[in-house]
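Ticket #4471: complex job returned nothing on first submit. Input attached below:
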Amino acid sequence: MLTGRYRIASAAAVVLGIALILLSELGGVHEVRVFGAGLISLGGIGLGVLAGLDQPRRAEWLAWVRDRRVALGMIAALVSVAPVVVAFAAALVVLPAAMGEGRSGMALLGGLIALLMLMASVGCFVLAVRAIRRAARPVTPGSPAEAGEEAA
Amino acid sequence: MIPTREILWNITALGPILLYTLMAIPFVFLAYGLARRVRMWRQGQPENRFDQLGRRLWHAILMTVLHGRIVRRRNRFGGLMHLAIFVGFVTLFIGTVIVMIEADITVPIFGVSFYRGDFYLVYKAVMNLAGLLLIGGSLAALYRRYVRRPATLETTGDDVVILAFLVVLGVQGFAVQALRMAVTDDPWGPWSFVSYPMALTLSALPESWLRAIHVANWYIHFLTNFVFLSYVAYSKMIHPFTSFANVLFRRLKPVGALDPIENIEEAEVFGAGKLEDFTWAQLLNVDACMHCGRCLEYCPTFSTGKPLRPRDVVLELAGYMADRGGIFSGELGQGENSARYRWGAGPDRALIPDVVSPAELWDCTTCGACMAQCPVYIEHVPLIVGMRRHLVLEQGEFPEEVTSVFTNLERLGSPYQFPPNQRAAWTKRLDQPVPEMAEVAARGEEVEILFWVGCLGSFDSRNQRTTVALARILQAAGIKFAILGKEESCTGDPARRIGNEYLAQMMAMQAVETLNTYNVKKVVTACPHCFNAIKNEFPQIGGNYEVIHHSQLINQLIAEGRITLDPNSALARGAVTYHDPCYLGRYNGEYDAPREALAALPGLELREMRRNRNTSFCCGGGGGRLFMEETRGTRINQARVREAIDTGAELLAAACPFCMTMFEDGIHGVGAEESFKVLDIAEIVAGSMITPNGADGAKEHGAAESEGAAPESAERPE
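Support reply: We reran it on our side without changes. The output follows.
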């Protein structure tokens, strides 16, 4: 009963918070932005805590996410890396032009940093995709003792 | 012109609307995951860990925020790498909050801006440095996992995904900043020393392109942050919360004291046969593990290829708890390396043997190396002993060899098949008599100190030599002491560590009753296991005494000049290496007294083994292992003996009868009897003492072996 009320209050806080954010950005009343953000955060925390303290249950949407976690993970990895790759690749493409505009040393340094960041981003993308794909493999059956003795 | 920048530059009203509205999602996920974990911990038994909150809080800050146990001399690379990531991440988080305060509070509500001038310039430089630390630390972590690959480190998908997240978040931040500066031609750009050169390069692009790429990067940056925050509670990244909580609620009792089963006569549950049998703090313990592998670095079972890996026991429990708690957790850890943990293998398993195998439990020597190394104070040994208690007391399952130990303890008061009236047989080797407390009390006298001989010191022929040596030292120093003789019984240490808590409590209560009968105030013992039990565990049942280890007393007697050493003694020559017994060193923090006692003999050159002091490598005899066969992996005692021989020393100095027995076996095992020997500190000192009657102490206490005679075999008593 009490939990139900808390849940309604949390959801209401999120809705009210969103309304304040809309008022702030569309109505130009920026003073209320922080209150909107606070209400959204508190409401979100409240909803999460109440659900977390509740009995475990196999939510269908969670199962849906679980079943598609590899695909979702790969899409998320691609989307998160793509804009920085575009930015740094563009920096490398225009590097000769940038060096011709004076301050060539700094522009070259910028190109070098962009190259390193590009390599780091692409490298992390590749490693993350490999890790996500690896996660799709089934659990190895067997008792812990067997596994331990294999290790030994 | 005052240095500052426009917050939300190039972002329309849609940006903040989406940013703040979607903020609810990561908060829901984070709070859900944390609450789920709290719910799981609360399934455990009650235990008060809320005392001394000030001390707890300070210690938690010291150990986690200030990296007390994370950056260590032997783990410099890993520690500094973590420190870089931590400092970078926290600084960037604080930086984001500062911008939020400016944009959402001080400017719109109070009309005051602080994000300008010198503050702004320093802020920019600090944020760039933080970004570098975050990216550099994360790349160093990937390098460590993929290139250096320490044997104790296993890489799961979760580890890689988290590090990739951190690198990409840092890179996105620099990209957004560089793209903005490329358009605005920021005159204070050089303060952003990483982004500025990139901005100069990017400025060759058309402005419309720069603006478009900037918007894309800005949205993706905040969305990546939100996805990362949502992922935190279901991955290893939960560790800032769980680690802090675990250190905050760590056990403040002496590390050597196992918690007894309270009211054991009326108890209905003995030990941990299911998750709910652990305390809530123990369940928090297993959830705090981030599989860094430091517990394996000095673990004797891991080093000798046995099934037990303390980290894996903890992770197996954590995975099982996650399954039972219904938490959507650790799934990315199902990769080839972590399949052993069986994350997601299902909640319908028995704790033992499905989740943790008996082989894992019985291999533990309880040496505490895992606990001493764990950066977040996970207590592996109590977990293992808890499950051993279940096996012994509820299932009646234990290694066959231990049966006779239990029987002998019950019938004879020691693990060995010797009658109690033979406990003082060793005194016949001494010229002066050693009084027993019963006689002393009958005479109405008192003694300065009670010499607790211990079962090995009383019955084991090899360790009797240590006992005799210590008695000679006490007599030479003129100390008025006595022994309990046939009234002495086992402290219960082996039974307790093996898991027979009922028997252990019975033994301990018997011993305390005897000591209290004689109003004993001060106890000396040559056995660190007895030392630990009397000092740390007897107070649980009303036995409070001043307890000192014989190495401490010997060192004190030397320092006070109460015994005189002969620098030319046959025993006091050459190179010696000292082995720190686990129950003296790690469990009770005594590392110096034995070394100082050896240093009092100038002819001895002390050479340290690679693993020494709190990283000492166990002899393999603790946790009841002395009484069990070592059937899996290679021999722990031989590994330690080889390490001792590698120092170039000819003599291994011991300070524990368990270690003595294991090393005598180990020396035979590696075939080094002719060139290498082990002696107790007491034997070395007694053998080097200038005695009033002019007896050749060196010959009596071991110098004979150095001249070629084989030492008496140290059999494991039946």
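Residues 104-135 of chain A form the longest helix (32 residues). Closing as resolved unless it happens again.
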